[in-house]
Structure formats: C-alpha cells, structure tokens
Write a structure and sequence with these properties.
68% of the residues lie in helices and 0% in strands. By secondary structure, the protein is mainly α. Helix 3 packs antiparallel against helix 4.
C-alpha cells in the first residue's frame, strides 16, 4: 500500500482551504479565551467563567474542531496517509476521551448554566443555521 494518495489538484485546494479555516478558528478561539486558554485560571486561582460567545456559540469545543480541520485539511492537501491517520486518532481521542472529561468538569463547575448552553449549542460539529447566523447576523435586506 502506498503512503501517498495522488489526489486531484482541486481536492488538494479544498484541503488547503480546510486547514487554513482550521487555523483561523484556532486563532479566533485563542483570542476569545485570552489568558484563560489551557486552564491558566486553575493555576492562577482566578474564577473561571463559561464562555458562550463566538466561536463557542457555534460549537462547544472549537479548539478540538480546529485541530481536526487542520489535520484533515493537511492530509487532503498533501495526500499523505500518515496525516490521515493522525487526523483520525486526534478526532477519536477528542470525541471519545477529552471532550467527555471536559464536559463532565464543566457541568460540575457551571451546573444548570452549562446544561442550558449545551442544549442549544452542538458539541463538535457546528449547526449550519448557527454558523450562517454568525455571518449574516447584521445583514439587512434592502
């Protein structure tokens, strides 16, 4: 079996776009969280707050979504099977291990506030209506 998939250029371009959008999502998420990223609030003793603004109003775990977009986009862009494997492992670990642990902790810390938020916001894959709503929120029909 070959380590490389010879994909058409148009598919590779789609992969590059996906990887780029994953990087943009990661940057937007980091900007939203600021110093609160990576649990620094626990290290400093500051009070944590539940983040529900963009991009957290489109999906509850935009950081893990951005990783998957970058890995899968890079895999498609390059055609390397090893990157597809890394992307798949990253996705499975995030969905099956990390996110359930994180959500259990968020429910413990934020209680009913997190329950309400989790019922209206998709866990990982953004709802298309919410995603489009972010882009067209202030658009007025002439």
């Amino acid at each position: 079996m070959s380590e490389y998939l010879p994909l058409p250029q148009s598919v590779k371009i789609c992969g590059a776009i996906m990887a780029f959008l994953g990087m943009v999502l990661q940057i937007l998420t980091a900007l939203r969280l600021g110093k609160r990223i990576a649990g620094f609030h626990e290290l400093t003793g500051r009070e944590a707050r539940l983040e529900t603004g963009f991009p957290f109003d489109v999906c509850r775990h935009p950081t893990y979504l951005s990783h998957s977009m970058m890995f899968f986009g890079s895999a498609v862009m390059t055609g390397y099977l090893s990157l597809f494997l890394i992307a798949l492992v990253d996705l499975c670990v995030a969905l099956l291990v990390i996110i359930p642990i994180e959500e259990k902790d968020l429910k413990r810390r934020f209680g009913s506030k997190y329950e309400v938020y989790s019922k209206r916001t998709n866990r990982f894959f953004p709802g298309i209506s919410r995603l489009l709503g972010q882009f067209f929120r202030n658009w007025k029909h002439p």
